[in-house]
Design brief:
binds fructose -6-phosphate; Rossmann fold; Glutamine Phosphoribosylpyrophosphate, subunit 1, domain 1
Length: 604
């Protein structure tokens, strides 16, 4: 996702900002920019695409002597990845960079526009700089104007602002998105949204806390908390290892990404939930006109989220839904009819089979929608409409947070369609929306749970195979659990519908067959339980995952109390992800780059 850097000092500001942005490249971005204030004048550069494009644009620009500068890599959320939408954003005489989402931007923008302000971009960020300048005109005091602006913003943000009205300072604010300041013995100040850009430049770092705002000059660090009380910075020694800084102390990117799911799901939900309806500003309701069927098409993990969606679409939206594995769809001469909405799902937006399937659907005249994590990817460019999942870049080859955000989007989309088709009463939609708001707290990884799974994993390293079993929407979760395990442990694992085991696979049951049983309390509990009992009676080794204690299991992982099966889905998703991770680590495998696999499969 987006990255921020800032610098205040006498060294080569341009190079420091560009180098800092390079250190944030691993987070993924689609455009970048910098603004430098030197001798009372601003210089600003922006470019779409890779940082080399920005480097090229700035090649004749030099910075000598004292200056302040801010830089940003943008991962599009509001508005396409264009130069105009890239940060920093300009007011009359100030620039701003921002990570996060300003939820009340539309209201602020309307007010500013009605007072004659012209907006250049489609972003939520641009309101910050105009609001600041509006407040500055009233108070004539840059800090007061900044503090007032921060109080007027709702949502999540990490903000840096520089202004000609106070040319020796950088103003900052943090709420929900990370931001830090680093110092050294040379009186320089470095800002960044994570450690890596300041490693090698700074000795000490202060991590801002939610609600912090203030300003920093060469000689002063002024931090205020949410109650406007001045507070002392808490400087810690900066660790100097870049790779571990990127991993935030986690052993593997996959582990970090599992832990990030709560935050990225909050991003996925942000601005899309109202009291009793789902808001997808990015799609037009007419997309669903004349549609009586949905066809979902994808590969791998994205296919599993598509399968999960098929349960939600039929249950809540009451719309006929079919599923296609993209590599199969391409060559089986499918019959397509124009009342079908063709939805492709892809983390990368580049998977060759899914892309070709999308081209076929378009060529047959179907309306198309892509659920994707990467704006401007091939699928996003091709489809009629896009919903972005906002998971941020996923580095681990085994997909985790991309899957979690896809499921979140599908749950929202099923309610969006339900509202359009009147298939669910308003109070039921409102209840579902209140459940959606609970997902982030249910996917927060609990230390005790992780510790329990770590210990348990040592009993599941051998044996002749794994069955992950579940019913209904827990069947695609079982498939996903099995896929995770095979990918990174190289052990044989299958996902199976619980009720189908007795039609063949139960013949394999013995103590060396490991069954991972998904037993949600709120969906077909009794039926699923009898299926697991059938396996237990045949001496299969069983690890049950449930809210309800299950005495017939050899091992039991208890999830927290949930008031709906979808919340149980998310809790169990965390358990199967962690189980695969810990088994793989014990087997000594390369968790992030498992053998034979690639992150983006752009070949057939
Ligand atoms: C598994 C995994 C793959 C991808 C599949 C499709 O962990 O990541 O199965 O889901 O290759 O990729 P995308 O979603 O990029 O189309």
């Amino acid at each position: 996702m987006c990255g921020i850097v800032g610098y205040l000092g006498k060294k080569n500001t341009k190079q420091i900002l560009l180098d800092g942005l390079k250190e944030l490249e691993y987070r993924g971005y689609d455009s970048a920019g910098i603004a430098v204030l030197q001798n009372g004048e601003f210089s600003n550069f922006k470019a779409v695409g890779k940082l080399v494009n920005l480097e090229e644009k700035t090649k004749d620009f030099k910075t000598d002597g004292f200056s302040v500068g801010i830089g940003h890599t943008r991962w599009a959320t509001h508005g396409k990845p264009t130069e105009l939408n890239a940060h920093p954003h300009l007011g009359e005489s100030s620039y701003v960079v921002h990570n996060g989402i300003i939820e009340n931007y539309a209201t602020l923008k309307k007010e500013l526009q009605s007072s004659g302000i012209t907006f250049l971009s489609q972003t939520d960020t641009e309101v910050i700089v105009h609001q600041f300048e509006k407040n500055l005109k009233i108070s004539n005091n840059p800090f007061e104007a900044f503090a007032k602006t921060v109080k007027e913003l709702h949502g999540a943000y990490a903000i840096l602002l520089v202004t000609k009205a106070e040319p020796n300072a950088i103003f900052f604010a943090k709420q929900g998105s990370p931001m830090l300041v680093g110092i050294n013995a040379e009186d320089e100040k470095y800002f960044a949204s994570s450690d890596t850009p300041i490693i090698g430049h700074c000795t000490n770092v202060n991590y801002f806390e939610d609600g912090d705002y203030g300003y920093i000059t060469s000689s002063e660090i002024a931090i205020f908390d949410k109650d406007k009380k001045r507070k002392e910075p808490k400087f810690l020694t900066l660790l100097q290892n870049k790779l571990s800084a990127q991993k935030n102390g986690f052993r593997f990117f996959m582990e970090k990404e599992i832990y990030e799911q709560s935050d990225v799901i909050s991003d996925t939900l942000m601005g899309r939930l109202s009291e009793n309806e789902i808001i997808f500003d990015e799609i037009d309701k007419t997309l669903f006109d004349g549609i009586s069927e949905i066809k979902l098409c994808a590969c791998g993990t994205s296919y599993h989220s598509a399968m999960s969606a098929s349960y939600l679409f039929e249950r809540y939206s009451r719309i006929k839904t079919s599923l296609e594995i993209a590599s199969e769809f391409r060559y089986r001469e499918p019959v397509m009819s124009s009342d079908t909405l063709f939805i492709v799902i892809s983390q990368s937006g580049e998977t060759a089979d899914t892309l070709e399937a999308l081209k076929m659907a378009k060529a047959s005249g179907l309306k198309t929608l892509v659920i994707c994590n990467v704006d401007n990817s091939s699928m996003v460019r091709l489809a009629d409409a896009t919903i972005l999942t906002r998971a941020g870049i996923e580095k681990g080859v085994a997909s985790t947070k991309a899957f979690a955000t896809q499921i979140t989007v599908f749950w929202m989309l099923s309610l969006y369609i339900a509202k359009l088709k009147n298939s669910l009463e308003d109070n039921k939609i409102a209840k579902q929306i209140s459940l959606l708001r609970e997902i982030p707290s249910h996917v927060k990884v609990n230390d005790d749970l992780h510790e329990r799974i770590k210990r348990l994993s040592k009993r599941y390293l051998h044996g002749h195979g794994f069955f992950f079993i579940g019913r209904d929407i827990f069947y695609p979760l079982a498939l996903e659990g099995a896929l995770k395990l095979k990918e990174i442990s190289y052990l044989h694992a299958e996902g199976y519908p619980s009720g189908e085991m007795k039609h063949g696979p139960i013949a394999l049951a013995d103590p060396e067959l490991f069954t991972i049983a998904l037993l949600p309390k709120h969906l077909h509990y009794e039926k699923s339980k009898s299926n697991v009992e059938e396996l237990s009676a045949r001496d299969s080794t069983i690890c049950a995952i449930s809210q309800i204690e299950f005495e017939k299991a050899d091992d039991f992982v208890q999830i927290s109390e949930c008031r709906d099966y979808m919340l149980e889905f998310f809790e169990m998703m965390i358990v199967v992800q962690l189980l695969s991770l810990e088994i793989s680590i014990r087997l000594g495998n390369d968790v992030d780059m498992p053998r034979n696999l690639a992150k983006s499969v752009t070949v057939e």
